[in-house]
Amino acid sequence: MNNFILHTPTKVLFGKGQVAQLRGQIPADARILVTYGGGSVVRSGLLEQIRSELAGLTLFEFGGIEPNPTYETLMGAVELARAEKIDFLLAVGGGSVLDGTKFIAAAAHYDPAKDPWHILETVGGEVASAIPLGSVLTLPATGSEMNMGAVITRKSTGDKQHFFSPLVMPRFAVLDPVLTYTLPARQVANGVVDAFIHTLEQYLTYPVNAKVQDRFAEGLLLTLAEEGPKALVEPENYDVRANIMWSATLALNGLIGAGVPQDWATHMLGHEITALHGLDHAQTLAVVLPALLDAKREQKRAKLLQYAERVWDLRSGSEAELIDGAIKATRDFFERMGIKTRLRDYVADANIDTLLAKLEEHGMTALGEHGDIDLVQSRHIYEAAW
Ligand code: NZQ
Ligand code: ZN
After folding, report:
1. What is the C-alpha to C-alpha distance for residues 313 and 121, in angstroms, rounded to an integer?
2. Span 130-146, average pLDDT
3. Whose CA is nearest to atom 43 of ligand 1?
C-alpha cells in the first residue's frame, strides 16, 4: 500500500427527511445564495421546502445551471455573489449544480485582476480562498458532494476542464434517497455507470496489496451492479435508492483511492467527447472504458483477473478468456442499464483528430496509472470505441 493523507471533512446527513436539518448547518447571519439547475427542484417541490426550512435567513437564488455547467452561465452567479457579498453557498441538485457552485465559490474570491477561467487552466493550484458551501444532492453519481473536484465547460472554446481545491469541499452534504425518486431513467443509469467507473478508475490498475481498498471497491461494484437495474424498475424502492446513493458518494470521496494507483484516462478521454459532441458524461465513459481495458489488458492483467473473479464470478477458462469475459460483462452491464457503449451509437462522425488536438492542448498526453497513454494510444482507444 502506498503512503496517503486522507482528509474528508464533509458532514454527511443521510436519510429520509434530512433536509429538515438544514438550518442548523448554516450560520444564522449568513448571506446565502441557493444555486440550482434547470428546474427539477422547482417541479419536485424541493426548492420550496428549502425556502421554508431557511425562512427568516437572508436568501438569494440563482437557477439555470445546466448539465455540464458552463463558465458563461456561472459567471452570472459570480457577479451576483460579489455584488451581494454572499458568504454561504447552498447547491441543490446533481453534480453539475455542485460543480458549478464550487466554481462560483472559488471565482468570487479570485484575484479580480484575473479571469476566473484561470482556475481551470491552473487546475485550482492558485485558489487561495473560497466562499464556504453546502449541498443537497438530488442525483447520486459524481461524488462531488464529498470531494474537492469540479468540472467546468467553456462553451465558446469547446473546453471541458477540471480543478481541485480543498477550499471548495462541501461543508455538509444532505443525502436523502427519496429526493432521487423523480430522476428520469436516463439519469439513474448515468449515475450508476459514472459511480461504477469512478470505482474502476481507482481499482483496475495494478496491485499494491491494498486489501481494504480493493475489498471496499469490490463491495461498491457489486452493490451498483445489483441495485442499479433494480432502480430502473422500482424507482420508489427506498433501500435500492439508499444503497446506490451511498455507493456513489463513497466511490469518489477519497476513501477507495487512498494509497493506491489511479487511472482516470477514461474520464479524460470522455471529457473531450462531451465537449465536442455533447454526450452525457456517463455515456462517454461507457464508450471509452471497454476499449481502454482491452488496450491496456497487459498492464492491468492482474487486477482484471481479480475483477473477473470477485465481481463477475468468472472462474474458468484461460487468462485471456477471463479478461475478455470481464470486459464483456462490464459492457453488458452498461447496456442493461440502457447506456449504449459504442461511439457510433451517438454520433455520425467521431472527429478523432479534433478530440486528440484538444487532449494535446489540455496536456493530456501521458495518461493512465503508468502515464503511458500518449496521443497514439488515445487515438487507438477512440478508434476501438467507435
Ligand atoms: O437541471 P435540473 O433541472 O436539476 O435537471 C437535472 C439535469 O437535467 C436532472 N436531475 C437532477 N436531479 C434530479 C433530476 N431530475 C429529476 N429529479 C432529480 N432528483 O438530471 C440532469 C443531469 O444532472 P447533472 O447534475 O448534469 O448530472 P450528474 O450528477 O451526472 O453530473 C454530471 C456532471 O458532473 C461532472 C461531469 O463531468 C458532468 O459535468 N463530474 C464531476 C465530478 C466531480 N465533481 O468529482 C466527477 C465526475 O467524474 C464528473 O466528471
Ligand atoms: Zn465521472
Report:
1. 43
2. 98
3. 144
